[in-house]
Amino acid sequence: MTVNRNVKRDDDIVSTFYDSEAESAVDGEPMEQEPLMSIARVPTGGRVPKRVVETRNPGVNDDLTEGIQPGDDWVNTTGGTVWICTDNTTGAAAWLQVT
User: Fold this and answer.
1) Is 93 exposed, middle or buried (0-12, 13-18, 19+ CB in 10 A)?
2) Average pLDDT of the segment spanning 22-50
3) What distances in angstroms separate CA 58 from CA 64, 81, 84, 94, one per listed residue?
4) Which of 14, 42, 61, 93 has the most crowded CB, counting CB atoms within 10 A?
5) Rounded Cα gap, residues 54 and 95, in angstroms
6) What is the structure's pLDDT at 1?
7) Which residue would you say has higher pLDDT here, 1 or 38?
8) What's the pTM?
9) Residue 88: CB partners within 8 Å, gap ≥ 6?
């Protein structure tokens, strides 16, 4: 299981994923740990890309009808993969795997 921590820096969005099942230190506070992955995204057209976090890869039906726009990303927490939407056509969405 991972925890998504978004940090806004200027016009970039940096998302870092940590293992939420790591042993806790004192008083239930999480221990310092290395991130599982970090992803930097730059908003396009003044719109902050949407992030979808699921336990599966995206498919052709993960499209405009679900509010997906080109540039949105999809994180598969089970497979550890990240995808970017390149086309949100209804019933024919296209996703590019980036990790």
Assistant:
1) buried
2) 58
3) 13, 10, 9, 9
4) 93
5) 14
6) 38
7) 38
8) 0.56
9) 63, 64, 68, 69, 70, 72
Buried b (16+ CB within 10 A) or exposed e, 81-90: ebbbbeebee
What does the CA dihedral 45, 48, 52, 57 come to, rounded to 10 degrees?
40
Distance between CA atoms of residues 50 and 53, nearest Å: 10
- Specify the number of domains making up the chain: 1
For residue 7, the enclosing domain spans 2-97
From CA 72, how far away is CA 59, in angstroms rounded? 14
HSE (side-chain half, CA atoms, 13 Å) at 97: 9
Average pLDDT of the segment spanning 11-19: 53
Q: pLDDT digit string (tens) for 34-45?
A: 655 555 555 556
